Input
Amino acid sequence: MTFTLDATLGARGFDVSLAVGPGETVAILGPNGAGKSTLMAVVAGLLRPDAGRASIGGRTLFELGPGPHAWTAPHQRGTALLAQEPLLFPHLSALDNVAFGPRSAGASRSASRETARHWLAEVDALPLASRRPGELSGGQAQRVAVARALAADPELLLLDEPMAALDIHAAPMLRRLLRHVLAGRRAIIVTHDVLDALMLADRVIVLEDGRITEEGPTREVLGRPRSRFAAGLAGLNLVTGTITAEGIRTAAGQLFAGQHDDVPGPLTTGPSTSGSDGVAVFPPSAVSVFLSEAHGSPRNSFPVTITDLEPHGDQVRVRAGELSADITPAASADLGLVPGMTVYFVIKAGLVSIYPA
Amino acid sequence: MDHANNSAYQAIPRWVYALAAAGGLFVLLPLAAMVARVNWPQFIPLITSDASLTALGLSLRTSAASTLLCIVFGVPLALVLARGQFPGQRVLRAFVLLPLVLPPVVGGIALLYTFGRQGLLGKSLEIAGIQIAFSTTAVVLAQTFVALPFLVVSLEGALRTAGTKYEAVAATLGARPTTVLRRVTVPLVLPGLASGAVLSFARSLGEFGATLTFAGSLQGVTRTLPLEIYLQRETDADAAVALSLVLVAVAVLVVGLSYRRGRAWIPAEAAQ
Output
């Protein structure tokens, strides 16, 4: 009963293959324009790829390219789509919106409304049943939209940034709700938010430029990121290079000393070996900022040019290109930091994790 | 003029108002001039004469039938033009809109050479025992020919504004294309469909040239109100003016009704 997809779209440089097991929720992370919405449209049948195949438990969704051709229309796929906007049908009440799926599947008016009431109750929206979508707030409308998608009893639920259009108060509530309804349900959720991935997904897939750059269990990917995008999401600094005995050497020749982190995970093939591709990962809180070069115990010290200073919690985040450091506002003021200034980033080797990319 | 106007700033220069007023007058003044010429003491007898009532009844019946035909063929045409993707789509749109700019008499001639006794289809229809030219059916066809573009244009615009997002969601919820059309697309564009139908009705009501050419002017069969007015103008100017006023009143009523219709959900709430 696994969902498998293998699709290419030449014009968009899109080439993705993935699988989602029964009851598994997969989060798709990636920068804007990475092809996340393309992926959703391809799965839902709203966009036809150039080539590839997809199936759910042996049932073919599409098969394109040389050889046999097959195309299952969107309404026969069992892949309900929940988008950024709730897109509730404006001429129907909340109840009839939720009843739309069962009704389309052939249920009687009363039976479909019964199903609708069940799902409205499930999302805490039963009191809104008789309202028109125009009378609902953004958060309420999105809850009703969740109920509508679930009432269609999809084999695969597609959530395309469902929290993106909500205000900061409505989003946490919907996230809790999704956590509740997604448990044990097969779903793909596209998101920008690392919190969504942590709370809702069993596994994450990082999509960049139409290709999967990283995938694995959520905690694994966020704890030991291999792509710069995943590291950014996890709030970590990431430097790529070649593994050496002490750490890694970047393409520019800079050496990063660190701890070889050989805890075998599902994706690590073995201990890091010198000469292979690797990454050095360290949190911004491990970075100190000095005006002159610091020496002493094993540490990395190198000059950088500050590009930005921004508040980060009760700290100041000092950005220098791809790297960042978190220091106290007092320290920042003492050093007189301003963008454009050249300073030294100093990182204790013990706080840098080195592992194969 | 200085009392507070709390509405938002409007960037309309004063001279635009002056030109707009002139434009409005250009439409209203002839109507007023006509009303001034109405022979009020004789008004009721004039519009309730046999010939007048017959013509009015025929006009309303044929216009209703034309509007129905416009909906039956215009809705699919608008859907295909707004949503479909096929070669020759732009050409099809241009030809569907042609009656908007064609002199109606040309349309009448074209219809005559299609459905007339010696026409393209007329010959076969004649053999089947069906005669269309110079019948009430011909009136309906002539009116449909000129009124169809109004419905298509208005509905195609509404369809494009509504977009396909709701339809896509409906499909992923398991609705077949026919169900999507019936339960999502049509309800979403209902205001556009209604105003298109009203425009078609109004255009049918006023149709003259194509009707005269293709259907003739036979009292009770093909002589609609505009034809009756034109005929009366030769002999009885008072009757022509009185009937014209009736036609104006019906048109105002129809257009007024369609604009009073609340646009219940399109588009502000739909955009949420």
Observations:
- The two ends of chain A are 32 Å apart (CA to CA).
